[in-house]
Structure formats: structure tokens, C-alpha cells
Amino acid sequence: MAYRLSSFEPEDGSGILTLPAYNQTDDISPAPPQFRWVKLPGGGVHDAWGSEEAPGSKQVLKKKCTLHTDTKPGLQPALDSLKSLSGKRGKLYMLMFDNTTRWRWARFAMQGSWPSLKPYQVDVDLAFESGDPLWRGAFHSQSVDLVTSPQTIILNNGGNAAVTNEVVTLTIPATAGQITAFILSMAGVSEFTWNGSLTGGDELVIDCGAWSVRKNGVGAWSSNPFSNNHKIEAILRLAPGDNGVQFTVSPSAGLPTDVVSGMATGVLGAATYTDGFSVDKVNIQFDYYDLWK
């Protein structure tokens, strides 16, 4: 049956547990929004979010179901296995009406168990507390070679909620000159600038969800990264649908001028959902999930 909490995968690697599906009732309403009301002198309130969408807050998702086995001796191990997960953090999966799955981080709690009136059955109440307000859908790993500056790529968010936890990776080939700035922007929405030095063999990773920047694995957040063109409380935000994301390097002379075969660059290959990239060009890769309420 679809639109149910279907399984739980503990972070410790112990394997995916399929949740009991018999006699099940699931409470999987969207996470309540975080309101930000500010009291005004003389009465009244101000909505501090303005025109921004209020993010979701932590949530407890519940599942009432019946654990059953074919024999009475098999019931206790099945119940013990379920109890052993209480308190563990992992991926909580939900089966949708179209038989696709979505997941979010959650912590498992078993709230109660009672003998059923029927043999070889135990009624159980399961709860999953999650500070992750959105469900993750399809994963995208979109890679493109940077052959001019600035350059724009179209990133599609197939969900119904904004994506703000992208991971952006800039890879510098040996043939590149020195790059001293990297700008990640969306017209009228955001403009994030990293200032520093990148040369052949370097890798710059911007984790938008964690608000971190690492160069070759070492923290490298630069000062004053947001310009007056930055309008959001996130590094990068992908609205549902297509998003034009522009990236700029300075100086643009730092881009390599030939490929390994000796041919001049300037032709942008089709952007694909792949982990691979060309080693002879500056490469930028975006990793993100579609997000759903």
C-alpha cells in the first residue's frame, strides 16, 4: 500500500528494516512552519520572514501497526529487533502513490507495544522524530566544464520545495592558471563570492547546507562573501522547476586554453547527470536532491 512510512535504515550500517505493514495507520503530515512574529510597540506584530517562505520545524511522524509472525516463537525476536532500533538515527523512507520513495533523516523511537487479540500478533506504536523538515527525492549530480566566464547552467529541482543544501565542487586541472575568486550567483536572488587562490590540482567544495567552504579538505571560508545582490538566507536556493545558476572565475585568464589533444576549448558539452568530468578543463559539479514537503 502506498503513501506509507515503509522502512528505516540506521546510520550505523546495520541494514534496512522494513516496517510492519499490517493494520497500519500513518501520520505523515507536512512539518509545521517556523513562524517569526515580532511584537511591535503599541500592539500588533511584524512577520519577520517578509516575502520569504517560512522553513519547516522539527516533527514527530507516527505509525501505528501490527507486528505478526507465522509462529509464536518467532514473534519475540521480531519484536526485539524492532526495539533494538529505538534511539538510533537513520534514513526514514516513505513509499509514494506512484511507488517511488522519498526519505529524510530521523531518530527512531518505539512508544509502545501491546499483545493483540489475535495469535502471533503485537500492536506497536512507532515514532520518528525529525529535525529535517523536507523529504528528499531524486538525487542529481550535474557536472559541466567551465570554458568561459561567466557561464550559466540550468539546474532543475523536480520537487515542490526550495533546495538550499546543494554541494558545489570546483575542480581545477593542471593546465589552469591561478584563479583568485569564484562567484556563484542567480540573477535577482543571490551572489556568493569566494576569494582565495586556486591553482592546478586544487578542489574547492562549497556545502551550502552546512554553510562551509573547504579547499583541498581544509576550511577556507572567506570574509564578506555576500554582496548587496544577495537577497536570501541561504548560499544558493533552487526553486521548484528550472533555475539558471551563473558561475564566474577571476581572472578568466586562469581558464585553460587547450585540451589534452591540443584542440582549442570553447565548446561546451551537454550537461549530464553524472559523477564524471573532463580532467583538462575547470569543472564545476552540483550535487543535490529534489525536496518535497
Which tags fit this structure?
293 residues; mainly beta; Elongation Factor Tu (Ef-tu), domain 3; Jelly Rolls; 7-stranded antiparallel β-sheet; 1 helix; 20 strands; 47% strand; elongated
Polypeptide structure, described:
The chain has 293 residues and is mainly β. The chain has two domains: 4-133, Elongation Factor Tu (Ef-tu), domain 3; 137-292, Jelly Rolls (Sandwich), CATH 2.60.120. It has one helix and 20 strands. Strands 2-1-7-8-9-6-3 form a seven-stranded antiparallel sheet. Strands 17-16-15-12-20-10-19 form a seven-stranded antiparallel sheet, with no helix packed on it. The longest helix is centred in the N-terminal third of the chain and has 12 residues, at 72-83.
* Domain count: 2
For this structure, the CATH topology of the largest domain is Jelly Rolls
Q: Got a strand count?
A: 20
Order of helices and strands: EEEEEEHEEEEEEEEEEEEEE
By DSSP (H or I, 4+ residues per run), the number of helices equals 1
CATH architecture of the largest domain: Sandwich
Helical content (DSSP H or I, runs of 4+): under 10%
Task: Sum up the overall morphology in one term.
Answer: elongated
Low-pLDDT residue spans: 258-279
Largest beta-sheet details: 7 strands, antiparallel
Roughly what is the average pLDDT, rounded to an integer? 84
Fraction of residues in β-strands: over 45%
Q: What is the strand arrangement across the widest sheet?
A: 2-1-7-8-9-6-3
Based on secondary structure, the structural category is: mainly beta
Q: Round the Cα radius of gyration to an integer and report it.
A: 24 Å
The CATH class of the largest domain is Mainly Beta
N-C termini distance = 20 Å
